[in-house]
Amino acid sequence: MRIANPIMSVPGAMQALLDLSAAAGKTGLDEDYVELICLRVSIMNGCGRCIEYHSDLLRKANVAEEKVSAVADWRDAPHYTEAEKAGFALAEEMTHVHVSDDVWNEVAKHYSEEQLAGLVIAIGAINLWNRMNVATEQQVA
């Protein structure tokens, strides 16, 4: 670990990020699906702490093990709906900081504008968590 977790070290930072995530959750998105998105992004970013955290949350919520374990290979897994796959594509492209019109148009077919905003916020928030944890070498608990 390079420094203490920044989110815990800066007054108000933890609550601000929790509030941001909570706002995304008020858009009608399925909570378990948002956790799957967080898991997928965390795998992409190599954030072991977040991979463990979101995997544990999904298992505690009794999400089917097939959905949890196949999230890294969502394109070929039969466990996800077209809407879920569209959201995973958005998460991947946002994480790479470029969202194509094709991906945006596909995800927009499945979600309302408010839900799309929630997805974008949730994906942005998990990327922030991942980047802080990876940069400061936070360890898996």
TrEMBL record:
Transmembrane segments: none annotated. It comes from the Bacteria. Residues 11-93 form the Carboxymuconolactone decarboxylase-like domain. It holds the Pfam family CMD. Coiled coil: none annotated. SUPFAM superfamilies: AhpD-like. NCBIfam families: ahpD_dom (TIGR00778). This is Carboxymuconolactone decarboxylase family protein. It comes from Lentzea miocenica.
